[in-house]
Design brief:
Four copies of one chain form a homotetramer. In chain A, β9 and β10 form a beta hairpin. Chain A is elongated, with a radius of gyration of 25 Å. Helix content of chain A is 40%, strand content 14%. Chain A is α/β, with parallel strands linked by helices. The two termini of chain A are 33 Å apart. β10 of chain A pairs parallel with β11 of chain D.
Chain lengths: 402, 402, 402, 402
Amino acid sequence: MKKKVLQNLEKLRIGVITAGGDCGGLNAAQYAAIMTMLNLGYEPIVIPGGNIGLYNLIDYSVDEILPATVAFAESIDITRAGSEIGNTRIKIKQIDDPESWERVLAGIKKHRIDGLIVIGGDGTGRESRRYIKHGIPCVHVPKTMDLDLQSLSVGADSAINKLARIISDAKTTGESHNRVLIIEVFGANTGHIALCCGVGSNADAILIPEVEYDLGVVYRDLKRTLFDRFNRSSTNTGTYVIVVAEGLKETEQRPGNGGATGAGASIATRLKTMMKEDKEIVELMKAARLYVPGVNEAPEIRDVVPLYIARSGETSALDVNFGLEVGAGAVYALSQGLSGVTILGFNKGTLNYMKTKNAIERRYVDDDKVKMFENMGFCFGRPVELFEPTLHEVKKPPERLY
Amino acid sequence: MKKKVLQNLEKLRIGVITAGGDCGGLNAAQYAAIMTMLNLGYEPIVIPGGNIGLYNLIDYSVDEILPATVAFAESIDITRAGSEIGNTRIKIKQIDDPESWERVLAGIKKHRIDGLIVIGGDGTGRESRRYIKHGIPCVHVPKTMDLDLQSLSVGADSAINKLARIISDAKTTGESHNRVLIIEVFGANTGHIALCCGVGSNADAILIPEVEYDLGVVYRDLKRTLFDRFNRSSTNTGTYVIVVAEGLKETEQRPGNGGATGAGASIATRLKTMMKEDKEIVELMKAARLYVPGVNEAPEIRDVVPLYIARSGETSALDVNFGLEVGAGAVYALSQGLSGVTILGFNKGTLNYMKTKNAIERRYVDDDKVKMFENMGFCFGRPVELFEPTLHEVKKPPERLY
Amino acid sequence: MKKKVLQNLEKLRIGVITAGGDCGGLNAAQYAAIMTMLNLGYEPIVIPGGNIGLYNLIDYSVDEILPATVAFAESIDITRAGSEIGNTRIKIKQIDDPESWERVLAGIKKHRIDGLIVIGGDGTGRESRRYIKHGIPCVHVPKTMDLDLQSLSVGADSAINKLARIISDAKTTGESHNRVLIIEVFGANTGHIALCCGVGSNADAILIPEVEYDLGVVYRDLKRTLFDRFNRSSTNTGTYVIVVAEGLKETEQRPGNGGATGAGASIATRLKTMMKEDKEIVELMKAARLYVPGVNEAPEIRDVVPLYIARSGETSALDVNFGLEVGAGAVYALSQGLSGVTILGFNKGTLNYMKTKNAIERRYVDDDKVKMFENMGFCFGRPVELFEPTLHEVKKPPERLY
Amino acid sequence: MKKKVLQNLEKLRIGVITAGGDCGGLNAAQYAAIMTMLNLGYEPIVIPGGNIGLYNLIDYSVDEILPATVAFAESIDITRAGSEIGNTRIKIKQIDDPESWERVLAGIKKHRIDGLIVIGGDGTGRESRRYIKHGIPCVHVPKTMDLDLQSLSVGADSAINKLARIISDAKTTGESHNRVLIIEVFGANTGHIALCCGVGSNADAILIPEVEYDLGVVYRDLKRTLFDRFNRSSTNTGTYVIVVAEGLKETEQRPGNGGATGAGASIATRLKTMMKEDKEIVELMKAARLYVPGVNEAPEIRDVVPLYIARSGETSALDVNFGLEVGAGAVYALSQGLSGVTILGFNKGTLNYMKTKNAIERRYVDDDKVKMFENMGFCFGRPVELFEPTLHEVKKPPERLY
């Protein structure tokens, strides 16, 4: 795909699809892509349901696939999560049809689609490279609630806000009943979300795949902190909150829980055992005047998995702002002949992008960041080492999103 | 306990305890009880942790149990859920101590407590009758998220608001992925909460213990409604939402889920089977252009259990208003010599109350109410019968809360 | 309008209009009316923009005014405030057209409308009686954010929740800067909203039209409370919050403020003067270590008017539940031949209603209720009298909404 | 202040103050500073009320100013806005006391404070340079709701989220009544907030100080857009939303409105006049079937000023995360001997900072950013020029906050 070719087209027709898990910012990105195309005189083609629609495009008559209008764009609520044009996790290669790519390409040809704007995560980034391999120019708009792309992505800020609120709110339950609360959050391979919503809600401990943890360290921090709180409180109340990334390697699985891996439940089980075997607990409960024989001999431990609740509903303003920016950016990039790239955003008049294959390389939580938070009292399940940052003076104004 | 006795006391000392599950309105009720007592010149005694504190009261020195002050009352955030004075589900009889009642009574005597204000549900209502049996005057402030007392209770309105928001928000996920969503909510024996948050979020089907349901009826409504929505939508999207009361009798149990009974998971499993066995689904999926061989041959079905998320965090204004009213009411009732009664609220200068044993009789969802909602399109899993209400003219202004 | 006439109609055609200020619950009421009619086989006619649509109905062709469908009803988001079918405060008699009623009646006749369901407040209730006078059967669904009808109405609970949240949140500003905050809320003639959101947010003083207040009483409570809080706080912080009903008679008006009467601003001005003239303030500021010569010699006083923010956005679950109930009730009432009545709601299989002329009589805040809250520490600007409620045992289960 | 000197101190005593307007993130920054100091073995000294406390520090006995404890830090709710240690806009030079600096320095000396962490905006940045001039080492943590520092700052993200929600919610009111809504938001000199919350809520027009606007352009966009929406809607409803930065130069002032400049009210007045003088409006109203003689001859125009509501209550997760990061960063910077610098945040093990005098230079909204949004349909009151971004490939992973 050459830049000139696309610019020579009288009416560039660009398809818009979303893929992967739903989250905040998808609607903003598709709205911006559609509206920017309309303003530039292009024809935005909405492909319903991501790869579902791409696979079935050939079955639609030409009259059924008309360019999106302002009225259609205005029907999209950019302040809400989810993808109003429909979404799927399905990859073309997973389809039980040996001619699935032929079918996709025939649909693309029939509806004269010149290129695709694909809004999705790392899997979708890889899928977009397959589109390109099959001859469909493609620009990638980054989305992942896991925050594990090299680029910033839509979706995470909304989820972090929701989760931080859920965790912070859950403390009213924990404190009423003197319970330990364990909250399992998104993050199949990385702990970005657990870290951000954990510190964002002032949780006590945060367990993430990047940090090798010793549950004994957590248990000791829990015991000390919890009983300190009981003893300090005029009503003997207190809680201790542990945020667990679902990607934590734990053996117990909770079946049928729609994505929950059971990491939180497993940590809960193990902590219950530790507490049961701890001879000091009864004395501590007695000293805190919380001991009741047979029925309240140790603090209770409960786990919660917010699941879909974390990804639905309102979208944060940051995700809307960033979604609009990268959605528009994709139009400029594709119309100028780029393909195989991931949009990073604008810095003044410059549109920054990365090669998609580089952008989707998994990003892990940085250990220095963990150390910084450990030195602020958050427990990550390991002994705290002194954090000694290097100081660096920045001389020119930093690039920034907001 | 005679009215005169209490009024003769120079400084009436009344203990305040909360019991049962935590929820919205508990803080308002205890705040109002404490502040009203302070204004009336009584001594409010906060008993930490409900029965935990009652059992351990004897261990506190007299100097440690001082009347609550305005400063203490102001430290209670009445707009937040939970009980800031601590809470427990423990009943005295469950305690592994044959002399637990003696211990309780000794504590009551040591700290010269003249009576108790007990904020809790039906179990707590029964417990309050046991206090009375043991000689402790007691007034009951109604609390139950299940709404199944004869009296209105604090807690439910906050939970219904939270759940209605969660369900309404979850639709962004359902619509993005064309999924059926099943949400299991509180209600161990009754369907009040499921009904109120179900209609409050415009869910499609509501399954409650009071209504014998045929899942086939739900399935047919689901199929018709969902594909109507797909076909009506310009992007082929849609969802169908089922709210399930945890008290629904279902066989599968999901272990270790902190109170979730698995009713929602069971309904999900059964619906998946029905859908799998339904020969028409593939044709409907094809007609809706959603069929993708091997990977999208039927709509997905997912279940969520909000659990603690529904009871924590913000308290609704109604629960605060009502909590303040009944918390204050309990002080007037107890100080005028009442015991064994449940506070209903004020109607102008009249404080309404019921005998606790009558107030805590379980209240079920009224079948006529269900019929009314069925005739509005909500599915309860049975054929819809015509609702024919009797008309009744009310001539004098109705009693009301707000 | 006779009952039989309506029931003989094969297809009863009922128009639905909303009128007056927008608020929560309107969408629920209209949704329920439409869906109930569709289930009963009637033809729901949506009249856009209330009296605007009624006046212009004659200009629509018969094909343009078709019965609402399920698809239309589903497009209404019952969890959101406002009226999606359009709303106006205009009364027919205000229209600058001597033949406005003729025009309305011609439209009604042209589109064969058999009766109206009118969702609105006291003004709308009066307007509905004019429809009837002109021969249009009419049932009234109560709506008023002011809560000043005899019947419960949709809208207020949503507004009270929003306002209580705004007031509660505003304390973070007040406490940071040691400010007195004055918040002016809805309530043109009555103080229900100010009372409910004031106690719902634990405000300190509440000024309402029903209670003759002495600002000196407020000032003294403010001074004592505020400096107590400063002195009690380890960081010398504190706030004092006054909620003012817009209907409070104050002389200063703040022009162009979309409904704000300036009552809050006037109270602010008067309190500033009192504080300026109070010789003790400087000493108190010094004692609290807050005195800074020339720039911080007295606590600041600020006022806020939330206005439209209080009536827009989310609808509370109670307003949705109640809106659905009374919206459906109106259909049953009208179809059974009632007219000139206001729907109160269902009690099991009984539909309760009042004559509209009785239902819209203004309801004032009860003085005993004020006394009850005064005895809990809320300041209403007058000396506190002892509240001595009469006790009343309720023997049968109370009627209730939830 | 030399690096070595500070590191030699056995117990570094660092004062923490906040200054300027209250907002989200202040509590997180102070919490992180205190907790990091406690972990590093330093003594965190909380100075109550910013410069108020600094001025009065000399009056506290040595025993009254003790290092903050973990218990104190835990009493700070980092998820809430405002500054729990107290805040003020007062600058030392404004104090009516010729010896104010002497007094400050005496207090600093008396309590052996080695340096200050100052959390505030540009004015506070300038004030921090005055502290340094008087010999008090000082590190600046950036805070400004206006977003107009060169560095990212705490507070804005929370405010943008609140405002975007308020604006988005207000549409239910606008659409119900077919109104034009004008919302005036923070931004005394720059339009960052107006821009971010305007696009974040999908407002229609955004007026900011950086863009010279022609109200005629806005009016024409309004007229076209609004009547398009009326005509497209099956219920003739629609709204048009204009977000106005308070810093917009407008002549009319609305007195006594606590910071509101009247820019929104002025725009409202001018648009009303334009609409009144526009001969076409009546025809358009008639065509949209909205015309009612005398009472509805043109769409209504209303303005709202959210004021304090935008800065109070919840803090966004981003502000908490960033606040924790820069609050901790300040401790590392100060303890390593830096002074006169503003913290930018960490990039892995590197702590980035700028000279405060550079960091507080006012940053304006970039015109290319405006162009990008104009090409997406947002109206800024000027003709839209084609946006032609330069494309730039980023080769190494970008620095990022989350």
